[in-house]
Amino acid sequence: MMYGFNDHLLGKFTVAVAACLLLASPVTQIRADEPAGKTELHFRGMMQELDRNMQKITAAISREDWALVAQIAPRIARHPELPLAEKMQILAYLGTNASEFHHIDAQTHEAASDLEQVAEFGDGKAVIQAFARVQENCLACHQNFRKPFVEHFHGAH
Asked: Does 146 reside within a domain?
């Protein structure tokens, strides 16, 4: 599946990227440019939900419960969007790296959609391969962007 860079998909990609960046992060607040300008993260809960869904899929795969995998995969592929203000904050930070984020996000959504489809057919080997692609894309996002993102928004020293 190919993704165009339109407003709807931009929102979805931004949420997924932000979720990948901060998944499992203990940080609960974003720092604005000024230390006094903290705001509560909306995507923290979303990231926690993505983490729970990934764990549920892992458990379902271990039980060969393909129907449950097919039920949960869309929650990763089509998760809720961030509020506009947070999208804009992240996009402003990403600058010229937004296209790389978009590429990783598109691959993650595609892999999660593929996961849903192969699980519906009960193809265990294909399920494991599609899930591995989801995980590989999350890892790529973390390795490429998480540390500088966290340092920028959270002031990690």
From this structure: yes
